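Hello forum,

I keep getting stuck at the same step: I have a sequence, I want structure tokens, and every attempt I make locally crashes halfway through. Rather than fight my setup again tonight, could one of you with a working pipeline run this one for me? It's a single chain of 320 residues.
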Amino acid sequence: MMGQCEDQNKNDDYSEPETLVSVTGGKQFIGNISILQITHSYYEPCKIKPNLARLLHILEPSAYNGSLADSEEIGRCNHLEPITMDILLDKVPASKREIEDYIQSNLRTIQIDGTIRLIENDYLFQALSQVLDCIDSLSWETKDIKRDVVIKELNGLHPEFILKKIFQWFFISQVNEYEAQGSSSLELYSMNKYEISRFLGEVILKTGRRFTLPDFLLAWGESVPRGLKVNLNQLEGIAVTDVESTPSIIWYFPEDSLPETITERFAILFETKSKWKLDDIMPYIQNICVSAQNASLLLTKHSRVHNVRGIKYYAAKHAK
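Reply #2:
Ran it on my machine without issues. Output:
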């Protein structure tokens, strides 16, 4: 990124030289001119971390919903622009590698006829739920799950490529485990406990504004398959808790909904909660930080620190 900068040098030692000044009409006279300041404008490269969260907002309008008429609907609606990598490169100030890595790590997308399609959340929940129900009906535990059997059982409900994506996103291949034992993997998978618990927790959070923490934990724990345990750490960056209220509460607060501008982001963070622990606020600022050192500098600049019973909290810089 190129930033425009200015150097302004004020010097009281500048002399007042005699300077020849031309005046209209061809007349000239000698006068004294005081040099008060010298300003140089220039551009310099500034290292930034691209805010790739905007990829979600670009891809959302054309999200894939699993219906047979999905592709035709995209073609009929002028405002639903088919998104390609070239379009993403044009709209997001980042390299192709950065965009691909972010999509791989943070978004659930498929490619159809050269276009990149986000999976609609409701459809993803429906497909995942049916996969988990199928596994439960076969009396399988959280590992040694036969992917091909599940795909065959759900044939006709969802396209095969969607079911394979479900396994890619929410399950872990046991290939390496079985290769180490010298036997065939047989396309066996184990549940990705973190991804499944996080996704199902997010689905619940999206259904209401705020929940009492005990009620939410109960509903969340009942929504995940047997053998999976839920933990609030699985919701980093998508939920905020207030344990000082009575009763404790939790609500949906996704990082990708925050402004890209640093000052605006901190303003919203401190409007949402008056004080934050470091571990709680980091998921909401790490995507705008170039490094860990940069995160520390941002917190120093935009917040003030105070200790409560030995615990360090960050509050708004000018909070009362």
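Residues 14 and 35 are 6 Å apart (CA to CA). If your local run keeps crashing, start a new thread with the error log.
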